């Protein structure tokens, strides 16, 4: 009799533990942050600005003072390209280190060389998968990517209307 009761308790305990483990696995995935919404969060980075070149690309990302190139990982996905000799690569920038510094510097420009940093050589096309904020308003120091490009092209950067409170 005692042995039967003990086996019943063990089965209930094992069943409860299995339920907790499975529930924990599903809930962790459901509440995980897929995007980095700021320098203090990890995940796929939502960019402030993005500029693509034929051998490099530049991004402006949020920073609290300690964000650098090492704060990110660039995933490279290879796909069929316009021709068999020219594949297409899709790049995704992930923040892997949160910026916990307390300086309020706003944004920082980071660049990647396609060959040196990512190993992409030869003839290819590429795109960046990350989202880009439409409401990014750089400081009026003229050093944002859009201000530099506009100055080089001799055009003004359109000012977005500020939202009313």
Basic shape: flat
Counted by DSSP, the helix tally is 2
Average pLDDT number: 80
Oligomeric category:
single chain
End-to-end CA span: 73 Å
Largest sheet: 5 strands, mixed
Give the structural class: alpha/beta
Strand content: 25-35%
Helix content: 10-25%
What is the number of E strands?
Answer: 8
- Gyration radius over CA: 24 Å
Q: How do the SSEs run, as a string of H and E?
A: HEEEEEEEEH
Low-confidence segments, given as residue ranges, are 16-31
Key descriptive features of the protein:
165 residues; alpha/beta; 5-stranded mixed beta sheet; 3-stranded antiparallel beta sheet; 2 helices; 8 strands; 24% helix; 31% strand; flat
Strand and helix layout:
Layout: H1 2-31, E1 35-36, E2 43-45, E3 49-52, E4 56-63, E5 72-83, E6 86-95, E7 106-113, E8 125-128, H2 145-153
How would you describe this structure to a colleague?
The chain has 165 residues and is α/β, with parallel strands linked by helices. The chain has a domain at 43-153. 24% of the residues lie in helices and 31% in strands. The protein is built from 2 helices and 8 strands. It has helices at 2-31, 145-153, and strands at residues 35-36, 43-45, 49-52, 56-63, 72-83, 86-95, 106-113, 125-128. The strands form 2 sheets. Strands 1, 2, 5, 6 and 8 form a 5-stranded mixed sheet that branches. The model is unreliable at 16-31 (pLDDT under 50).
């Amino acid at each position: 009799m005692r042995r039967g009761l003990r086996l019943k308790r063990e089965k209930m305990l094992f069943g409860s533990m299995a339920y907790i483990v499975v529930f924990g696995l599903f809930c962790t995935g459901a509440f995980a942050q897929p995007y980095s919404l700021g320098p203090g969060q990890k995940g796929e980075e939502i960019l402030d600005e993005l500029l693509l070149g034929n051998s490099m690309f530049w991004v402006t990302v949020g920073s609290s003072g300690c964000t650098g190139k090492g704060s990110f990982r660039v995933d490279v996905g290879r796909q069929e390209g316009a021709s068999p000799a020219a594949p297409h690569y899709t790049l995704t920038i992930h923040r892997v280190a949160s910026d916990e510094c307390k300086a309020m510097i706003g944004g920082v420009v980071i660049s990647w060389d396609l060959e040196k940093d990512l190993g992409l050589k030869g003839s290819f096309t590429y795109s960046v998968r990350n989202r880009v904020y439409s409401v990014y308003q750089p400081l009026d120091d003229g050093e944002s990517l859009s201000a530099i490009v506009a100055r080089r092209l001799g055009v003004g950067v359109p000012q977005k209307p500020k939202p009313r409170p």
